[in-house]
Hints:
By secondary structure, this protein is of the alpha+beta class. It has eleven helices and twelve strands. A five-stranded antiparallel beta sheet has the order 1-2-3-5-4. It has a three-stranded antiparallel beta sheet with strand order 6-10-11, with helices on one face.
Amino acid sequence: MDSAADTPADTPAEAPAPRSVPETPADLLALAARHGLGLTEESVEFVDFGLDYQVALADDDAGQRWVLRIPRRPSVVETMAAEVAILDLVGAHLEAAVPDWRIRSEDLIAYPAVPGTPGMTLKDGEQHWTLDPASEDYARRFGTLLAQLHSIDAEKARDAGVEVREPEQVRQQWREDIEKVTAHFDVHPQRTASWQYWLAEDAYWPQRTVMTHGEIYPGHVLVDENDGITGVIDWTTARVDDPARDLLFSYAIGGEEAFTVTLEAYAEAGGQPREHLLEHCRIFWSAGAVGYGLYALETGEQAHHDAAAAQLASDPDGGDPV
């Protein structure tokens, strides 16, 4: 990859500092105990991914597995109430389970573990797959799951306090986000050209928006031993938006064949796929670098700024996810 951008991010001096998070099992147990939750130290397992929360797993004295999420930034705390409303809404519509928060405070969210195992985990920087990312069975089940999620009435979501983006707002927000990132980072010309073509092409953009998860990759999808979907976690980024925001993860992890299977199952279960979705999702996936750039600017953390700068400056050729 090329070096970081020449000009550092124009981050406000008052950008909030990261919150302290537990560094040891003992620290985690002490935090949980302050909220009345007793855990066993030998059962603690820290999870390495998650930009908004530090995540850990641990058992209580009765053997119940718990998920503990510790906010990394004050801005994350501000989204908690919205996420509770989202969980209540989607939990009533999905066959898959969602988290049932038992503890919610500024320094800890905790809930009994949702049944199943994450389809992918990250340990010591390495991906470990529980499922076959190219599996047609998983692609089909994923399409059915998304059809259920996307069928939730957008007005009910609005009434529940969920953010709603109308179709015209979706493209406009992308336009503003791309402008902000390209103003702060040195972006490879091929990326910029691709994104401008994408923004200008009416055929790519949705005529309707739906309830979406936003980060429904295998790390947030729980499965059983047969790759059946048992639960979906981490609804922090959920909102009413472009359905491709979720569908693109089928392309990203399984490639075009899996994506085709997902769309077929999605349509059979009542979803409404539109034309040019594959092309839209290809560019949408590459534009994930924009999201990381925005995150780096929001947090003001140099490590994230440098990583985002390197990604944005790199040549996108050969960047298909499979």
